[in-house]
Amino acid sequence: MVKLKKRYSAVLMSVSSLPSSFGIGGFGDEFKIFIDYLVKGGFSAMQVLPFNLPDFGNSPYGSCSAFAGNYLYIDPVSLKNDGFLTDEELEECVYHGSPYTVDYDFVYKSKRNMLKKAFHNGFSKVENDVSDFAKSNPWVFDYALYMAIKESQNFTPWQDWDSGLKYYKTALSYSDKYKEKINFYCFEQYLFSKQYSKIKEYAENKKIAIIGDIPIYVSADSVDVWKNPQLFCLNDDYNPSLVAGVPPDAFSEDGQLWGNPVYNWKNHEKDGYAWWISRLERNLELYDALRIDHFRGFASYYTIEADANNAKNGEWKKGPAMKLFSKVLDRFDKERIIAEDLGTYSEDVAELLKDTDIKGMRVIQFGFSGDNNTHLPHNYKENCLAYIGTHDNNSLLGWLWDLSDDVRKFALDYCGFKGDDWGRGGYYSESCRAVIETVWKTAADVAVIPFQDLCGFGSDARMNIPGVPKDNWRFRTTFETI
Fold first, then answer.
1. Distant-in-sequence, close-in-space partners of 482: CB < 8 Å, separation ≥ 6
2. Catalytic residue positions?
3. What percent of the chain has pLDDT over 90?
4. Which of 40, 147, 150, 181 is the most exposed place for a label (fewest CB within 10 A)?
């Protein structure tokens, strides 16, 4: 583990955005090259997006498992070098389309086919290692059983499975029937873990920390809800009765209807929040520090009727707050936890941050509206992370172009920009440099800069537009850039 300094800077970069020959970034040499890039730039950390398997919209913030790793990141070259693929099978993984975007249709198919061939070619050689890995990580078997059954059911949601498979306890009796498929999915997670461990070791040797990110919620169609339905607000047919989201805000006039089931916090409390403790433990094994998305949901959370068409008419409910976090902080170092405390703010969120003493976030792009906005850099306190933008924001250059003339002038004057060519992008963009330097100069303990903003990229490099269901999470860079 890399022990983070009191004051440091990081680059926000999704693994999927790294350059590669296979349609998506992963745990190959591209990751090591990027770590070297950070060392040369004087950075101390890389913040990644969640390692979870993405949902149907390719978002890593909704997943079929809160514990399993994204098989799309498994590197074909490493598999070939370890004897799991032939030269011809490696060539089949090569993507010949644009290097600037992820082609999810291609990579889902090619990486799955790759893993099937690797399993056929080499599982027998590592069967004992895979078995030991699964025994040491009990969630692996649950995930593998869930995925094996899901594959046999044509990938339909578990709520629609046959009655004997729909319930985890009865589904266990089918383990022998699906043994081959279960072995395959255990093998998948073994490869993910083995390859990432080598990346993590490389980063540690270079003294680069990796900051992870976990969504607060999981998908209704997930192994977590299938195995633990009592921990979620479900109706009699095991579909969500209440779903998560956020009310109307600057991103969306209808709010955001996420659709994830919300937690039954009373039942979590009964077993000492064991599921959450195990989830955080798993993630803090992967990362040196961990950003918890939508932290304000632990203070109070927004619930929406499952049949609603938008998020306008939801209801706020009280979260577990310190009932959960007193147990979390008994187990884990608070310096390794980061609170994404953005969005609708209230006194209970401020109180929870104060009680936990966990670092919160400030985003300069949010700072130039209202009177003396808390996101204006002169208001930053030491115990926070200062961001140019998050994965949900426009790129810095795109944001400047979208501002009204008066707000843009205010922002650029505030950041000390003296030129007249504010719209110029690229590596030497003076306007982008002025904003970045302003964030670097704040009292915040940590400064985090999206990779796209270091490069002065425009709106076409934006990672995600909240509330827009397609064409997100696709940005990639090239080897020439790093």
1. 19, 33, 34, 37
2. 293, 340, 392
3. 91
4. 40
